Amino acid sequence: MSLLVALITGRCSYSVDDGGYDLSQFRQDQQLVSVPEGLRGVVPTNREAVRAIAARNDGRDLRFVIIGDTVSDGNKTFRTFLGEIAALDPPPAFMVHLGDRVVSPVVECYGAYFKAIADPPCPILHVDGNHDVREEGERISRAFFGDKDFYFDRGDMRFVFMSDVPKAGLRKEPSGFTRTQLDWLEKVLSEPAPSRKFFFAHVPPRAPFKKIDPGLAALFTPPLENEAEFLDILARHHVVLAAFGHRHVHASEVYNGVLMVITGGGGQRNFVDPDVNEPRFTKKSHYTLVDIPRSGPAGPLEGILSCMGKGHTTLSITSFSQGSLSANGSDLSVALRPYPMSSSGPFRPGDPAPTRPGASPRTP
């Protein structure tokens, strides 16, 4: 088992001597649940990141980055991607980290991760991965990033972030969502405005990605706790895009009208997943770039989903769309089409649009 874990995560080493922040107080004091003196302000909380997103936006097009599973020795791959993301034109409004930013030893690994994001190209919003909450990680995550489940609104779009990893990373407990979490999600998605909804968590549901799970690979993606009800909630509320990490691949598929994406190629090695003959699949290191042009709240939504490899290489690119909300009886299932979507050519992504911060009550 230890050999399997090493193969999946890569044999990563981290220490304060490598230039990371010293978080050893969390190991020494098992009751520590807040940021120690001297480390305050090292990284923004999720709430602070939302405020920074709001301050930077001016009401035009939206571009954002999704990345997950960024652990590599010394965060080399992740740091490379941070530099390339900083060079994007136009720049992204924000980045979503889908979790697994650390591995054991968690204290040293978090210290190295915080140093890596000390000067990010844009605000980063953090979702918990299963590795992130093991050992001292649960207390570190809550101290530095805040609530597990939260959302914010940006123009006519709502972005919802949830933790679906076992409490404290316990391997014996299933990944998924509790009844309390699903009730909260139902409430957040059922509000009529903003009308376009986006969702982010670490562990993907099994059902939408059966195409990439041939044979023994399916054992690495067991169903989530309450998976069927979770997927039903996303479909009933016409979620545009739901993104997950955990699997160290890129895959995208429309399932029950929702664009489902796995994007976990930010650094961790992949010796387990087989190669799959699908046009929107890769095991190469990558991040996902989402471009959405400005549109009125009643008009259709269009966007571009780009899987980006090292050196600004486009590994795959797809157009996606959701119908007009004002048309009675309109099918709001998301459609995937070749890029560009029309003969008029691709839209030019512009600068980002206004943001309204919103925050959830804390969920258990």
Number of strands: 15
- Distance from N terminus to C terminus (CA atoms, Å) equals 31 Å
State mean pLDDT (0 to 100 scale). Answer: 85
Class of secondary structure makeup: alpha/beta
As a percent range, the share of helical residues equals 10-25%
The CATH architecture assignment turns out to be 4-Layer Sandwich
Oligomer: single chain
Number of helices: 8
Low-confidence parts, pLDDT < 50 over ≥5 residues?
A: 1-11, 345-364
List keywords for this structure.
globular, 364 residues, alpha/beta, 15 strands, disordered C terminus, disordered N terminus, Purple Acid Phosphatase, chain A, domain 2
What does this structure look like?
This protein is α/β, with parallel strands linked by helices. It has one domain (2-356): Metallo-dependent phosphatases (Purple Acid Phosphatase, chain A, domain 2, 4-Layer Sandwich). The chain has helices spanning 2-9, 25-28, 46-56, 76-86, 106-116, 137-145, 179-190, 227-236; strands at 62-67, 94-97, 124-126, 150-154, 157-161, 196-200, 239-244, 250-255, 258-263, 281-282, 287-292, 301-309, 313-322, 335-338, 355-356. An eight-stranded mixed β-sheet has the order 10-8-9-7-6-5-4-15, sandwiched between helices. A seven-stranded mixed β-sheet has the order 3-2-1-11-12-13-14. Residues 1-11 and 345-364 have low confidence and may be disordered.
